[in-house]
Amino acid sequence: MSLPEGFLWGGATAANQYEGGFDQGGRGLSTLDIVTSGSQEQPRQLTVKDAQGKIHNISMYEGMPEDCQGYLDENQYYPSHRATDFYHHWQEDIALFAEQGYKAYRMSISWTRIFPDGTKESLNEEGILFYERIFNELLKYGIEPIVTLNHFDMPLALAESREGWLDRRTIEDFLDYAVLLFERFKEQVKYWITFNEINLLNGYVFLGIKGKDLGKRAQALHHVFLASARCVMEGKKINPDFQIGMMLASAGMYPETCNPNDSMREIEVSRMFKYLYSDVQCRGYYPEYALKEYERNGWQLVMESDDLDLLRKGTVDFLSFSYYNSAVISTKEQEKTSRGNMMEAVKNPYLEESEWGWPIDPTGLRIVLNQLYDRYQLPLFIVENGLGALDTFNDQNEIVDDARIAYLSAHIEQMIKAVVHDGVKLLGYTPWGCIDIISAGTGEMKKRYGFIYVDLDDSGKGTFARKKKKSFYWYKKVIESNGTSIQAKP
């Protein structure tokens, strides 16, 4: 079985986890710049200062208290500040991607490198030139840039001055940012993704909202939906050949038993965790089940007269998604011991788990591909998939990451079955963290995904030297063969 000619093999990263250079080249602060490192047991912490001037560290998932503001503490380690330093290694890294044979590279642009305070009045031309050099370098090697406009980063200035996406003015600021990029890079970039894992956006770090009011989140997300729709509409005016998509965190979900109550619960969770977001962006309207849920919770969205028309007109060209694991949904009251990409669920006895407790389910990827394609009949794009694991050197100073190779080969096999056997239309595959980057959830370095090792530890110490792992050579063969050579042990 082989994939169509022109299939976009590559890799994926995010600016806040990879780029670094947080205070160089005119870049402004983002909310992720005030988030410290964490661990599997300890979530990453927001550094905040209260009205009395006292500094606190709170979980990034708890949300910024109403009376606090973001703060940088010189005694803390903030992993995003240097990340794995693409800012100073971009030529070296792109050459390594080219050596592997990449057809595409999915990356994100840092909003605050373009608009340091989030608005067009603060335009930073040096930031534009930085990305222009990167795109030129990619194209020199025949690598298609897949560009995400917003990958979890909210300008700190907008979060502090107006609670970010809760304020409707942020739509216009984001559109100014997007249109500038569309115009500057209309000849270099064809594929755009508006928001990364839109269904995971929440709280202060990702949306800029303070407190824990879920009604605020619903309103902020409405503004995000509108911003995405308008990006599609404005982007097409600038270059009708643009392909503009959305991006979903798409874990597979199973009911725990054949009890109809478990099945109904799985439908409810899948709807509100995943499908609400893709339904709005792919179909162009709020589904009835979501409106009923909002009504039950007393969430009344504030809309302008043309909002629903904008959502209808601004539907996306393709649906991109991440897939790492599946989850078991149950109606029973029981401990949720299985993790995976910001969600917890019931343990699946049929699956092995990673060192970080994430279920490993290659067949689940084929299921998700079929579910999404059946639902929307839009081209799909797997823009994240990978195994976070500890990497160690052997006596020959090599990293033999057979577990990563086994994970990826099994998932690629199921991906090919979905395309060749099931008829799913798939644009490409860009596994996550193709080079080692800091973990989004924990800020750690020891949880590695890449084909390329970066010499850096959890405390930010290291030379940043790059080294190829065994998986580097394995994935090179996969690309060369267009997926016909995927054996786990080359």
TrEMBL record:
<keyword id="KW-0326">Glycosidase</keyword>
<keyword id="KW-0378">Hydrolase</keyword>
<feature type="active site" description="Nucleophile">
    <location>
        <position position="384"/>
    </location>
</feature>
<dbReference type="GO" id="GO:0016798">
    <property type="term" value="F:hydrolase activity, acting on glycosyl bonds"/>
</dbReference>
<dbReference type="Pfam" id="PF00232">
    <property type="entry name" value="Glyco_hydro_1"/>
</dbReference>
<dbReference type="InterPro" id="IPR018120">
    <property type="entry name" value="Glyco_hydro_1_AS"/>
</dbReference>
<dbReference type="InterPro" id="IPR033132">
    <property type="entry name" value="GH_1_N_CS"/>
</dbReference>
<comment type="similarity">
    <text>Belongs to the glycosyl hydrolase 1 family.</text>
</comment>
<dbReference type="InterPro" id="IPR001360">
    <property type="entry name" value="Glyco_hydro_1"/>
</dbReference>
<dbReference type="InterPro" id="IPR017853">
    <property type="entry name" value="GH"/>
</dbReference>
<protein>
    <submittedName>
        <fullName>Glycoside hydrolase family 1 protein</fullName>
        <ecNumber>3.2.1.-</ecNumber>
    </submittedName>
</protein>
